[in-house]
Amino acid sequence: MEHADSAPSLSSRGGSEIESNYLETGLYITSFAATISVAALFAVGLLFITLLIALAFMLQSCQSRSSGVIQLLETSNDYGYCKVFALHAELNALETDEFPKVCKTLAIQYVKEGQYLRDLKLTMSVAESYLSSLAPQNDGLDVVLIDLDDIFLSNPCTRQLHNRLGQHDMNEWAEEAKHLKRMLVLGLYKKLQARGWSLILITRKPEEQRNAVQENLVDAGYGGWSSLIMRSDAEMQMASWEYLSGKRAHLQNQSFRITSVISSQLDALTGPCIGKRNFKLANPIYYRLKDQNNSIQLLR
Q: What is the domain range of residue 119?
C-alpha cells in the first residue's frame, strides 16, 4: 500500500516537473519569436525610411532636370525672338530704348559664354576660304571693302553706350566684344593683304577725323590699305545706306572690281554695287546712336 501510494506520488511529481519544463520552454520560444519580429519590423521600417529618402532625392533630381529643360526652352525661345527682333531693329533703325531688356541680357551671355567668338571665327573662316580660292589680278583693281566701323568706335558713341548700359556691362561684354572683333578682323586683314588683295576701308565718320582715324589704324596694326573712304560734309546728311552704296558705285565707276564687302552692319550690305560674295559678321546686339556731330553710328 505504501509502495502503491508512493508510485502515484512520484508520478504526480514527475508530471509536475514535465509540465513546468514545458511551460518554461514555451515562454522561451515566445520571447525569441518576439525578438525576431521586433528585429524584422525595425529592418522593414529602416528600409521604408531609406526608400522614402531615395524617392525624395529622385523627385528633387527630376524637378531640377525639368526646371533645367524648361529654362533651356525659355532661353532658346528668347534667343530666337531676340535674333528676329535684332534684324527687325536693324532694318527699321530702331532706337536703343525700343530693344527688349531680355535681349540685352542674352547679348551679355552671348559674349561671356563664348558663342559670339565662335560665330565670328566661323564667319572669318568662310570669308577666308572663299577669298583664298580666288586670285586677284595684278592691276590692283580687285578690292575687298571692309567696314571700318566694325573695328573702331568713336569716343562719343562709346560714352553714350557706357551711360546706357552702365559700368559693369561696359566692362563685362562691350569692350570684350570689340576686342574680339578687332583681333579677328586684323587677322583676316593681314591674310588678304598677303595674298595681294587691295583693301579699301570705309567708315561713316566725317572727313575731318581722318588724321585721328589713320593714327588709330596704324597703332592697331592696320597698315598698307589701298584707300580710306570717309564722309564729306555734304554726305553727313545722307542716310548711311545711301552714303555707302554711293561710294561703292563711285568705286565701280573708277573700274574697281568689288569682290567682297565685309561688315556686321546691314546698311553696308544693301543697295547696288555690292560684291560678288559678301560677309556679315556676328553681333551681340544692335544699337543706333548719334555722335556729337549728329552722324548716325550703328553699334553692336
A: 93-299
